[in-house]
Records
---
Amino acid sequence: MPQWLCNQLMRAFHKKDSRQIKLLNECWYFYRNKPASSSQRNIENEI
């Protein structure tokens, strides 16, 4: 999970902002399920 998304999720949980949590959750599933380009796959495999 990208750091920017982790930071926003932590902020939303801290503020108990359920609308923001749902939105970020949808973003995460979209990000995770989208086909990655070959350069992104190589970067993710190195981490």
Note: The first helix runs from residue 3 to 15.
---
Amino acid sequence: MLNTLKAVSWSDRLQLISDCPIAPLSEFRIERINLMLSLLKHDKNSENRLDALSDECLKQTLTYEVLAAFTEQIKIPAETKTSKDFIVMAFQAMLKRECANHRSVAYYAAAMNLTPRYFTTVIREMTGNTASYWITKSVIVEAQHLMLDYSLSLKEITFRLNFSPQTFFSRWYRQYSGEIPTEFRKRNRI
């Protein structure tokens, strides 16, 4: 059940919910939410706690119940998506998962059964930037995220980002961000 819940994407509705943070609840929805809250409260106060998986599942179910209450009230505009929209969305999803391991336009194009030329044309047309730009930007963001974890050495970060050797990563990072990794870490040390 947890995998099913994690697979459902509500990101397209979160902006709509933030625009309209109040939603009326039906009696049925109120009963369900109150039941889940009482189960969570009872579980918290009891000596015989549910196992962690059940507890997490109940919390996620409650979250989805509340989100469902909002989305029932919101009129979601019907958008017609073109094949180019789907290419961009698939590319964005792939970048989040694979930018640390794959930095070539050809890889992403092949994964979508497109030629690199057509793929780059679509990405540029739809986003205003090339696929290479988005790949580089994603790797930089991932690198910065990893560099903020001070328990990781630059060597470990280089390995995680699939660069070899570390000096190549430092030069690459400086070329695209304007500073070397150690400068970024010093500037962002808390």
Note: The first helix runs from residue 2 to 7.
---
Amino acid sequence: MTNDTAAKHVIAYYWDAFDPVVLLYNSQNNSIDKLGLTQINFSASENKICTGKMEDDEYIPCPQQVKLTKNTTCMKCSSPAIPVLECVFEPRCEGERCGSPLFCTRPHVVYLALYSNLIKVGMTSEKRFKERITEQGADAAAEIFVCRNRLEARTLEKEISARFKIPQEIKPGALMKQWVTAPSMPQMQNVYSTYLQKISTWKKPLNKDLDAFDKYPIATRPKSPPKIVHSKGKHTGSVMGIKGRFLVYSTPKGARALDLSDLVGRTIFINADDDSR
């Protein structure tokens, strides 16, 4: 981990296969670094600033330093591949209403994901299936339907959720409880098979085998469910593991869970003396 206390802007959080990456921009020397994720010791700001954009493999900070509360980029810095940010979550059409329809018109999949014995339904671009499952920190998953476009996949996802009482999201508190013990593949397979059989009575699924996503375990299991902490403030401890967007670290008062995706846009101070919480 970098040892200086310069202010650094968190500009990205993503998974490179099963390796989590947090990118930091240092405006003092115009450099991009990675945040060390073995031992953490930093303070994070309350405000979030637009993370800028990449142009011809060069990082360009937001020229207006726009303050944000929801998205990570302002409209001027957002990627042209996603012309309407709201369509990431709720597609409005089959791609005919904007000038860059590729995001919506490519094939998508609907999948079932397991978090130990908890199950959820989701959808994503067919090419991003494994990447998306990793981003969500699932222990196992399988594609159950292939759809023509994003709207069709989202519609099918919601119908499956309503028909078979499968949630579209697992609440963080429920996830934390799963991390006290290691997941059981036979147990997850049983849950998956049960729901797949129910779905097959309504619509024929792909019947793919359940794939284990076990290359990013919680290496050191907490004795009790980690307490979710606010991104703002100081975070110090040994990293126990990273699943999806949550980093779990140990403290004298027990395990804590930090949402790394919520760090994006904030300014952090590595090894800062700031003790705000």
Note: The chain is about 20% helix and 35% strand.
